[in-house]
Amino acid sequence: MLLQQQKETRGRERTMEAKPEEKAEFEEAEIEYVSYGGEHHLPLIMNLVDQELSEPYSIFTYRYFVYLWPQLSFLAFHKGKCVGTVVCKMGEHRNTFRGYIAMLVVIKPYRGRGIATELVTRSIRMMMESGCEEVRYLSYFCLGNIICNDEY
Ligand SMILES: CC(C)(COP(=O)(O)OP(=O)(O)OC[C@H]1O[C@@H](n2cnc3c(N)ncnc32)[C@H](O)[C@@H]1OP(=O)(O)O)[C@@H](O)C(=O)NCCC(=O)NCCS
């Protein structure tokens, strides 16, 4: 019951994020997901994060993530426009490996259609293939366990 109420509240909050006229018209199949592919992707990631997250980051912070773990960061494109991104890292933790989701953004007109879920799922899959046994959100970003599936 409580879970249902929380879901409905979240749904209402999300629909308030973008007015109906600002919602993008698209089919899920039109969204293209690509792994971080090099320096040309960096300004796209930085633009999205700067727009949507309050924390200001220097280019060195972004580079730290994408240079060391390029395979863990993904971008979502719609007709050539970057509409979402996830930036992650992984590291050793008590004789095992742990993945961290550092930044996660989808621009407002594209929210509520599963793009963040797909981005996170792809990153987590790569983390698991690389030996991670658990995944966390970095503490300075707080999304809780909303996007992740229990199976992770
Ligand atoms: C959070 C964010 C990335 C979600 O993107 P999205 O593509 O709309 O997410 P999805 O459509 O994949 O939603 C997946 C689940 O996340 C939850 N969710 C999505 N947006 C949410 C929000 N704003 N608040 C709370 N829960 C949210 C929903 O429970 C949804 O599950 P459901 O399908 O059961 O309803 C997007 O709202 C965003 O960029 N927000 C601003 C930046 C931010 O807060 N980033 C997270 C911290 S790093």
UniProtKB/TrEMBL annotation:
PROSITE patterns: GNAT (PS51186). The keyword Acyltransferase applies. Keywords: Acyltransferase, Transferase. One of its GO terms (cellular component) is NatC complex. It comes from the Eukaryota. Residues 1-24 are annotated as: Disordered. Signal peptide: none annotated. GO terms for molecular function: protein-N-terminal amino-acid acetyltransferase activity. Residues 7-23 have a biased composition (Basic and acidic residues). Transmembrane segments: none annotated. Residues 29-152 form the N-acetyltransferase domain. Belongs to the acetyltransferase family. MAK3 subfamily. This is N-acetyltransferase domain-containing protein.
